[in-house]
TrEMBL record:
Ranges in a coiled coil: none
Alphabetic keyword roster: ATP-binding, Nucleotide-binding
Gene field: moxR
Family the UniProt entry places it in: Belongs to the MoxR family.
Protein name: MoxR-like ATPase
CDD domains: AAA
Pfam families: AAA_3, AAA_lid_2
Example of a GO MF term: ATP binding
Organism: Dictyobacter alpinus
Domain ChlI/MoxR AAA lid per the UniProt entry, residue ranges: 251-320
SUPFAM superfamilies (alphabetical): P-loop containing nucleoside triphosphate hydrolases (SSF52540)
Domain ATPase AAA-3 per the UniProt entry, residue ranges: 49-179
Amino acid sequence: MTYPQRLVPPPQLTQPSPIEPVLFEVKRLIVGQDHLLERLLVALLARGHVLLEGVPGLAKTATVKALARVVGGNFGRVQFTPDLVPADLIGTRIYNAKNAEFVTELGPIFVHLLLADEINRAPAKVQSALLEVMQEHQVTIGKQTHFVPDPFLVLATQNPIESDGTYPLPEAQLDRFMFKVLVGYPSYEDEIVIVERVTGANIVLQTLLNPEGLRHFQQEVERVYVDPHVVLYAATLVHATREPARHGLARLHGALLYGASPRASINLVSGARALAFMRGRPYALPRDVADLVPDVLRHRMVLSYEAVADGLTTDMIVAELLQRFPPPHIDLGDRYVG
């Protein structure tokens, strides 16, 4: 394949990231969730949504609330329950008898950061109400279209160990989440620090950003240079989930019923831009893509019944993909090659 000539001058060496103070401020309260915090910030910078999965008590909700406090803007939380209806989320039209007319009452979704707590406890009708707003940042109530604030991000949590009263998220909605992050238990050392902070003096986080500042950072991320080799690498990884035999992964041919959509390739590239920005680089590298592959792909692949019966998981498939296609080294014009 012939690549176009580079459209930007050779990039400069890495510099301290301007988003680091936000990360450090959140870490004053949240301990042992470095991977989670990094992915949340990447999603914020890349205008993506995040699904957090973990057992109760791992500070998923506390992390989202702490991040919302530091980045500023309006924050809203919706506790998803089986009796929730779409109007509880997006709003509805109410008849005003005094004026003899209908007025629109907007729902709690009209905020900058929306925490959808235990999202898998709401039925399909409520889940479908999120599809439009997550993709198009607007909702339709009656015949009127209402736009949510900019920036707008959905940070959802779900509990993987409970099945009573839960509804699996439809694939169409899962695909709209940029990342699915698995939140694990803290280490022994981190747990000691967690107990000390929770039982100690109250920690008040400072607000370091506002919606205008976050939009500025998002625009800076959009200017991060992406070499054609990086795009090719992302597309190769995603396409291999749809046609594994063509990419030397014949063993996975019967394991995958459906692979990842092109939205996964887009998220890998846009996420790599944000990750490069956080790492102080004005250009993305293939290893930025590789670092994001598990969180971007794990919820976008549908396994066959035989694969599930054999104990195969999507994370195992991701590991095999990265083993087959490790991040290539490219030279972007300075002494940093990787």
